[in-house]
Write a structure and sequence with these properties.
Blueprint lengths: L17 E10 L2 H17 L5 E7 L3 E4 L19 E3 L7 E3 L3 E7 L9 H18 L13 E3 L2 E11 L2 E9 L32 H16 L1 E5 L3
Parallel strand pairs: 1-2, 1-10, 3-4
Antiparallel strand pairs: 2-6, 3-5, 6-9, 7-8, 8-9
EC number: 2.3.1.181
InterPro entries: aa-tRNA-synth_II/BPL/LPL, BPL_LPL_catalytic, Octanoyltransferase, Octanoyltransferase_CS
GO cellular component, one term: cytoplasm
Length: 231
């Protein structure tokens, strides 16, 4: 049971950093990860003393649309397609997930950080910008949009849901995915800025190394101590 794992590390008066479980998963169907997130959020609504969680994983090919996403940004009929499509409770427009893309789902109680959604979004961007910097790449923000760009290409998308200051959904960093799937949508509703990947700038980049760098940057930006665990 997931719930049995999240009470072992309660408050630690001698630790200045908040504790956060890190779960490194492999290829997980979108619906399975979605249900896991909702279960973790429900637990934290009932017990705000539970530790935060960061889940890092990949998904098989899937399209997701935010709560208010427009179907106009799909280049196919979602009722007559073999593609897996989900409308979910995050903000933002349509995006695409596939292997080679590192997806992060932080389940954080912002009461322990800052009760400010704009601050949280900028922090997630900062995590990814710091990861790119490790590889000598200059990640950038674009005014008016959420995400991270690299030389004009969007390499990371962010979409969140926050309820009673508990977060779910998160970010997707294109490490070395097949970008063909993005051609069937207008990614994030942005038609004039192409999607890119880190592999286009660093051929042969190692996915697992990027996973490690994301976890490290997340720990520093949010000031948490990550504790690896298994679900």
């Amino acid at each position: 049971m997931v719930s049995s794992m999240y009470g072992d590390f309660g408050s630690d008066a001698g630790n200045s950093r908040r504790l956060c479980w890190l779960h490194n998963l492999k290829l997980v169907p979108y619906s399975v990860a979605w249900e896991l997130q909702r279960s973790l959020v429900t637990q934290r609504r009932s017990d705000c003393g539970l530790n935060d969680v960061l889940i890092l994983l990949e998904h098989p090919p899937v399209y997701t649309l935010g709560t208010g996403s427009s179907l106009d940004f799909l280049k196919f009929d979602p009722s007559q397609t073999e593609w897996e499509v989900h409308r979910i409770e995050r903000g933002g427009e349509v995006t695409y997930h596939c292997p080679g893309q590192l997806v992060g789902y932080p389940i954080l109680n912002l009461l322990h950080y800052r009760q400010d959604l704009h601050w949280y979004l900028r922090q997630l961007e900062e995590v990814l910008i710091q990861v790119l910097a490790v590889y000598g790449l200059k990640g950038e923000r674009v005014v008016g949009y959420t995400g991270v760009w690299l030389e004009g290409r969007k390499v990371a998308a962010i979409g969140i849901k926050v309820s009673r200051w508990i977060t779910m959904h998160g970010f997707a960093l294109n490490v070395c995915p097949d970008l063909e799937g993005f051609k069937s949508i207008v990614p994030c509703g942005i038609s004039d800025k192409p999607v890119g990947s880190l592999a286009e700038f660093i051929p042969g980049i190692e996915f697992e190394q990027v996973r490690h760098q994301v976890a490290s940057a997340f720990s520093e930006v949010f000031g948490v101590e990550l504790i690896e665990g298994e679900l």
